[in-house]
Amino acid sequence: MAHLLGTSFVPSASGLRRSPGLHVAGRHGSRGATRIQAKIREIFMPALSSTMTEGKIVSWTKSEGDKLSKGESVVVVESDKADMDVETFYDGYLAAIMVEEGGVAPVGSAIALLAESEAEIDEAKSKASANSSSSSSAPSPPPPSPSPIAEPEKIAVNVAPVATAVAAAVASTHPASEGGKRVVASPYAKKLAKELKVDLGRIVGSGPMGRIVAKDVEAAASTAVADVAPVGHPVAAAAPAGIELGTVEPFTTMQGAVSRNMLESLAVPTFRVGYTITTDALDALYKKIKSKGVTMTALLAKATALALVKHPVVNSSCRDGKSFTYNSSINIAVAVAIDGGLITPVLPDADKVDIYSLSRKWKELVDKARAKQLQPHEYNSGTFTLSNLGMFGVDRFDAILPPGTGAIMAVGASQPSVVASKDGRIGMKNQMQVNVTADHRVIYGADLASFLQTLAKIIEDPKDLTF
Is the dihedral of CA 386, 392, 393, 396 positive or negative? Predict the structure, then answer.
């Protein structure tokens, strides 16, 4: 699995040592004795995507001293697009946590130490303390040691998506307890609860398997403060939940990735073309098949894909500034706002998939996106992007071109408009504004104008959308 994560497995040379003058006991025995030195291994920050350079610890699912079994979840790591559950490939004991919850570590760096047996836990903690001291001060030659500590070997980890659990109502047996006896909380959450004088037994955990994490303790402390506010005193208007006005917040991993992409987009020469499309026929079709699970997003994606079939240059992309690629597939990426960021789930081969399957796929992708469970190929393989703010009543806007693609289309709301027919009559029609931002190195004004004309014909006569 290590090759999938872009990480390495480095076996320790000191894992099995033969003491001087002694011999390994064979089948028939020997006069000597064998000394096997247990291993201390590093749990290191995995690369969860090809663009990931660092990761943030969301929560530790195990505490220091806990016994671990191969394949068991140890920590939840936030990548640039998803939260991933990191599992160990070895049995042992979680001896030392080197990066606490909320901390950030570079890919490949140690975030914890795993001891093979309980006897090595203290040795591992000493190693972790030594590493911590050396990283916070100038490096100096280490003093000679009578019994050198074995260099820890890095653990390859298995990674799988993990959804953020939703807090449930308080029950008689706490979900973060084992049979109502022991409250399961992360080390940092326990420390925070002690500082804020919060009773962990009264908190419902939102971490994996109901585990209490730091944000649960902070929420409980905020609730307690609100409950004891003096009656009769004026209270200032409250900020949105979880926001403390006047504070400076560092970017989350996802926000950092979005920021880098936006800066990269500035290097691409773009231009914009707008078009007005009548949507009466599309609206009527949507009302007719909505009960079968069809979404407006799927209809727009399907219409866009069919138009791109006739205009492959609009589905092309330029990555090196010297050439461009006519993409072999039409993969429609659709921007979705999620908590703390933005992601673009991809509908692959949208021109070939029927509208009902496309709608089911879209619902599945949105659910996974909001649970931060999307796999890289489900959000980074788009060839053309849609951004729809029409559901918020926005009538028109411009979108920023995602890196590595040729065009993005911003879709506004469909609204009743007074229009004149060709014979001079005045009437009412539902119309929407679309604006396409394109890479001018590859796509020209005439290309977009022709594409938008084709798109308008498909939307104004949408019979092909249900085939």
Answer: negative
In DSSP terms, 104 is beta-bridged to 56
> What is the Rg, in whole angstroms, of the alpha carbon atoms belonging to the chain?
29
**CA 447/CA 450 separation, integer angstroms:** 5
The partner residues of 212 in beta bridges, in order of sequence, read 185
Cα(378)–Cα(336) distance, integer angstroms: 13
**CA distance linking residue 90 with residue 52, whole number of Å:** 25
Question: Residue 237: is its pLDDT beyond 60?
Answer: no
Hey, which residues does 85 pair with through a beta bridge?
Answer: 76, 160
Task: Determine which of 14-28, 92-106, 137-151, 254-268 has the lowest per-residue pLDDT on average.
Answer: 14-28
Provide DSSP, 223-249: HHHHHTPPTTS--PPPPSTT--TT---
Query: Is the C-alpha dihedral spanning 380, 382, 384, 385 positive or negative?
Result: negative
174 in active site: no
Q: Per DSSP, which regions of 366-423 are E strands?
A: 384-388, 407-411, 415-420
Q: What letter does residue 253 receive in the DSSP assignment?
A: H
| pLDDT band for position 54 (cuts 50, 70, 90) | confident
- DSSP letter assigned to residue 27: T
**Choice among 3, 174, 311, 440 that is catalytic:** 440
- Give pTM, 2 decimals: 0.61
Q: What are phi and psi of 67, to 5 degrees?
A: -80, 135
